[in-house]
Design brief:
There is one protein chain. The radius of gyration is 21 Å and the shape is globular. The longest helix is centred in the C-terminal third of the chain and has 20 residues. 45% of the residues are buried. Helix 7 packs across helix 12, helix 10 crosses helix 13 and helix 14 packs across helix 15. Helix content is 41%, strand content 16%. The protein folds into two domains: 203 residues, Glycogen Phosphorylase B (Rossmann fold, 3-Layer(aba) Sandwich); 174 residues, Rossmann fold. Helix 11 links the parallel strand 12 and strand 13. It is built from 15 helices and 13 strands. The N and C termini lie far apart (49 Å).
Length: 386
Amino acid sequence: MPARRVILHAFSTFALGGAQARFVQLANAMRGEGFFHRIAAMDDRYDAGERLSPAVAWEPLRVPNRRGGGLANRGAFREVLSEEAPDLLLTYNWGAIEWAAANTPAVTRHLHVEDGFGPDEARRQLPRRVWTRRLLLALRRVPTVVASRHLETIAMSRWWLPASRVAFIPNGVDFDAIAGRRARRTRTGGPDVMIGTVAGLRAEKNIGRLIRAFSAVRKDFPARLTIVGDGPERKALERLARDSGAGSAIEFTGYLKAPLSRLVEFDVFALSSDTEQLPIAMLEAMACGMPVAATDVGDVGLIVPPVARGGLASPDDTSFEHALRRVLERRTEWETWGMAGRERVRTEYSQEGMINAWREIFRGNWQEVFRKRLQRRNADETRRGA
């Protein structure tokens, strides 16, 4: 039995989101490998724990959180780090930046993870947050994992992190399992085209944009819309759906423990966000071979293969409606788009590659992971410049 290695994960919340879903994916895959996960959530929510296998060794770390703004919790968090003495501290996104401050000067080994931005930074980054990252991450040369090429560029150019301290580790999906479930699905939607999305119902996901676009295109195409997920925007979105005139054709499933069970039923996947980096649900949809209508934000434009770029839109209502309409008009091209998307996911966004990289990080061998990622980045830049 391997020696137990304690990792403290600091999140703003452990309610389900992109970073939390990836952690669940990783922890389940590495259960029984000697890792013990302590999860600190700034809002004391641990909903994502429902998805963890019983074989995963973990427990919540409930720490009082003062809502004073700034670095109000630095002292208390630093005491926790000294008492817990984890082998590794992992901090996730801006919402956990106080834990990075608490580890200054270093109490334990620390690695930071960035997955993207909320609605307040969808259009531009806030200067105070940029400078805080420069001070707490760049100045201290904290190794930082980013979930997209877009964030990789920001980390080096805006936050001033050295290239050797930034590693792009793409989210990965279990291609074979997803493709198999798609092949075995039972189609229950009748003759209507099933458009769907899987998302937290938060402002930056802009599900209202999707509802407005759907209500417009449904006048010309028989279609239904399924919205999988829950969040603070749900009541307002349900009201918008009723007022749109298409409410009878829109289903809100709420939170699902296994959203893939509904995703595999879609004919078209829609992503209407103002900000994204490398969305897992979109990768799962592409692994199913379905066409995508999406806003071209973060790495979305890099993920979608060239043949399927007709489904991309600027992050505004008019452009997104036009993109959704183009996808529905080009039904004869769906098979070609789907095959290209499946191949892109299979070769570049595998679950195995993601798990192997994170396993080494959990073990403390981050230097080798970062070295290989830097070599690949340099090789890609050389090819582009040739």
